[in-house]
Amino acid sequence: MDPWLSTGVGLVASLFGGAVGGLLTAGVIARSSERARARFEAEGVIFAVVKGYAAIIAYEHDQLYEKSAFSHEYGSVAGQEEFARAVLVELPRLPKRRATKIENELAGLVGALTYALAVQRTYIDPEHFDEKRESMRRALTLRKFLFDEGTLDALLPRMLKNQNDIDQHNLDYADAQGAMSRILLEVKR
Fold it and tell me: How far apart are CA 51 and CA 59, in angstroms?
């Protein structure tokens, strides 16, 4: 066979094979690109939510100069629930291992009671709930946090419980900030 002919046939075959291969892999590449974009967006949202919540806790913690039996905004039951929900809604877009680590830290921050509620309500629009019933439910949850030792399995409820015990409150505050720092490190890993 003529060397020019075999080179021409080889060139045409490789161009055709590359075109077919490109068509077959275009969908895979596009889906991979979309997953990477979604992961990047989720990382940004989680980072902003956690960073903002940590800043609010720092600000409110510095304002604790009066004794009170009621929560400042950062530790309110509603604030903890919204914080957990805002993080949980983004986790499915992260790789499973990273999402699990963030989930564990989040559960350690808000506790089993708040975490279970946030998981249940992750994709439900908050406007769906009756505000009067929600207010009563949150009052009962707050009562559990303040008076029932069994619910104090997490840092934010303990901060709420111990806000009038400055030494313990400061320890809980440092632990909560540490947990949020670990979440931020995991997000930007």
Answer: 12
Residue-wise pLDDT tens digits, 14-25 = 656 665 556 556
26, two tokens: 């275009």
- Token look-up 């979604």 returns 38
Q: Is 77 exposed, middle or buried (0-12, 13-18, 19+ CB in 10 A)?
A: buried
For 50-63, the pLDDT digits (tens) are: 999 898 888 877 66
Tens digits of residue pLDDT in 26-82: 676 777 788 888 888 989 999 999 999 898 888 877 665 555 544 455 567 777 888
Residue 71's CB is within 10 A of a number of other CB atoms, namely 22
How far, in Å, CA of 85 to CA of 82, rounded?
A: 5
- The CA distance from 101 to 109, in Å, is 13
Distance CA 173, CA 68 (A): 17
How far is Cα 72 from Cα 3, in angstroms, rounded to an integer? 84
One-letter amino acid at 72 equals: H
In angstroms, how far is CA 7 from the centroid of its own chain? Answer: 57
